[in-house]
Design a protein that fits this description.
149 residues; 3 helices; 19% helix; 17% strand
């Protein structure tokens, strides 16, 4: 068992299964670029060692719940750029931080945004007290021209 999953020292939080299942029913994901052997959500996934930021996501239907640390902006930019490739769809589950540069550079008016009512209880923790609970949203699919995100 990975002890980091039960400490506040991790920036990786497993997506709640029922939440993922609902998204997967809509989007039919085939790649999880931010995963490990225990928490991957799709049959094909990239581990930290494989570094999904360096991989090609072309032609894939990607579910991305990135590490919620300093590197989140790199994941948002990568998702934006990969999502503009032909036949590629990227859906991200990220904290609702609309005051960030990455939100304004890569999400606002550039992607469909759905805010999640309430807070998700992420997996990989033993008690609610220790779980990460964010007001979250997911971003995916490019907005129609002139549409608001």
């Amino acid at each position: 068992m990975n002890k980091a999953l039960f400490s506040s020292k991790t920036d990786q939080w497993a997506t709640p299964k029922d939440f993922f299942d609902a998204l997967n029913a809509e989007f039919h994901f085939d790649l999880d670029p931010c995963a490990d052997e225990e928490n991957h959500k799709t049959p094909e996934y990239f581990t930290k060692e494989q570094d999904g930021l360096l991989q090609d996501w072309s032609g894939r239907r990607v579910f991305c719940n990135p590490p919620y640390g300093r590197a989140i902006s790199a994941w948002v930019e990568k998702s934006f750029r990969e999502g503009h490739k032909d036949d590629t769809l990227v859906v991200m589950l990220i904290p609702a931080r609309t005051d960030t540069r990455y939100f304004h550079d890569f999400i606002k008016n550039r992607a469909e945004v759905r805010f999640i009512q309430g807070r998700l209880k992420f997996g990989g923790v033993r008690t609610l007290r220790r779980s990460r609970q964010w007001s979250s949203y997911f971003a995916g699919r490019e907005c129609e021209e002139g549409g608001a995100a």
